[in-house]
Amino acid sequence: MKKYVFLLLFAASTAHADPFATGNAANGKKLFAKYECDSCHKGKVGGDGSAIFTRPDRIVRTVDQLVPRIKFCSGVVGANLSAQEEQDLAAHLNQNYYHFK
Known about the structure:
By secondary structure, the chain is mainly alpha-helical. It has 6 helices and no strands.
C-alpha cells in the first residue's frame, strides 16, 4: 500500500513541474534583447510588444507550442539558437507571460 501512495505522490508532484526547468530564464531574457524580438512584436501589436503573448488570438496556447514558435521566430530574425538557448528563451517567456505548468 505504501508503494502505491508514494507513486501517486510522485506523479502529483511532477504534474506541476516547470516545463522548462532546464532553461535559464535570465539568459533567455538576454537572448530576447540581443535578437530584438520585441521589435517584430511591436510592429504586430504596438506598445512594448508584450501583448503578443497575452492577446486573445495568440498563437502559443500550450506548452508544446512554445519551442516550435521560438524556432520559427528565431528563423525570421536570423538567429541560429542552440537547443539550450531555445530552452532558455522558453523559460523566460514562460516565467513572464505564459505561466505553463
